[in-house]
């Protein structure tokens, strides 16, 4: 028999009485809901909505994020050890894809994922008991899981200990994530997700709170000399492990991996993908403290840079020295991001082979969640593209379906489908690429499609 761990009970008793109920306060990053002062467990109703939206990933470059609650990372949830959470996950009717949620704070099947799979316009519900205190990641676990996470589907839930945490003056919510785009860092325009780079674990962006500059300039978090600061830090991944560090500070306390163990006097703490840490420090002198992933190219070249601006009286007993602009000051030119790659001009004509290669990438970011990698679809919801008589019969109709979406009854290879395919936000070149690909894969054969053929249909639709 193994020896028991230390004396104090580290888990809520599952039979602690649940008294009353309340609605969870959710906050968008970098904010954290107020500490829980309740002395009993209660039923907490969490209402969260999945929203897909397009927003700048860096100024001038757009990306289509998928989110819990309309922000990346998703809304912060704060509950108490012993609470019974009744979780409601809604999928906004304008969304294109089904989603679900796996909370690492859950003891139970899939962390809730299997109970919360929900189509656009629908809502799912499940309940769980918060047995273990700590700071937990939640994320979407809908296939392809990596892609849902890479698009921003993660956030933090804090299960506060029954006895609470020591009081601090400021609390903030910071979550790292890595992003993979077709174009290089900073390439202008709407960028598509790159499955290829995600598989190679070569992100173009590594970000705190979902955007280059989400925590810099006038969006920096702030504190004053003499205050204590607590950061709830998460890492959604999907791939990278973060070496979280604050330039100019030392963590007085780290609750490593978001658990019970306290480590003191730490310079850099590891935050695993799908993991967390709580760090605390006191502000002794005024400065602009820089939050980084100390895998440092990610900071100065891929965006993983935030700022904590602390104001107040200097203390020469602790620090004195000259201040030179441009050293670690983003505004002063201290941050060198890579020169922006110019967007290559798009050629009007491409060979079939070229369009097949490019089209496969579009397929693997825009279509395969529904039509599947094999092109066989997922009957009865998603029709096959492999050997589809419907698709091959009318090229203009097929283009129209991709540009404008389609709904209503159709018959594919003798089987009736009655679903909704959302309009795909793709330029003419990418539509030509993806349709050249699908019409020449899995036993299909057709002439290469050029962008002009797509443009003609688009003009007719008036898109
Ligand atoms: Cu999802």
Characterise the protein shown here:
The chain is of the alpha/beta class and 463 residues long. The protein has 2 domains: 1-344, Immunoglobulin-like (Sandwich), CATH 2.60.40.420; 352-461, Cytochrome Bc1 Complex, Chain D, domain 2. 17% of the residues lie in helices and 33% in strands. The chain has helices at residues 113-116, 145-150, 195-200, 297-302, 352-371, 389-393, 395-404, 428-438, 451-461, and strands spanning 18-23, 41-58, 61-68, 77-80, 84-91, 102-103, 123-129, 134-139, 154-160, 170-179, 189-191, 205-208, 221-224, 228-237, 242-247, 251-255, 262-266, 268-271, 275-282, 287-293, 305-311, 406-412, 415-421. A hairpin with a 6-residue loop joins strand 16 (251-255) and strand 17. Residues 331-341 have low confidence and may be disordered. Bound molecules: copper (II) ion. Copper (II) ion binds at residues 66, 99, 140, 142, 148, 153.
Write a brief caption for the model.
The chain has 463 residues and is of the alpha/beta class. It is 17% helix and 33% strand. It is globular.
**How much β-strand is present in the residues?**
25-35%
Structural class: alpha/beta
**Into which percent range does the helicity of residues fall?**
10-25%
Q: Which ions, cofactors or small ligands are bound in this entry?
A: copper (II) ion
Task: Enumerate the spans where pLDDT stays under 50 for 5 or more consecutive residues.
Answer: 331-341
Global morphology:
globular
Number of strands: 23
Q: How many domain regions?
A: 2
* The first-level CATH class name of the largest domain: Mainly Beta
Relevant CATH superfamily of the largest domain: Cupredoxins -  blue copper proteins
Overall residue-averaged pLDDT value: 91
Work out the radius of gyration.
Answer: 25 Å
| N- and C-termini, Cα separation | 70 Å
Q: Counting H and I runs of at least 4 residues, what is the number of helices? A: 9
Question: Would you give the CATH topology of the largest domain?
Answer: Immunoglobulin-like
Question: Which architecture of the largest domain would the CATH scheme give at its second level?
Answer: Sandwich
The largest β sheet comes out as: 6 strands, mixed
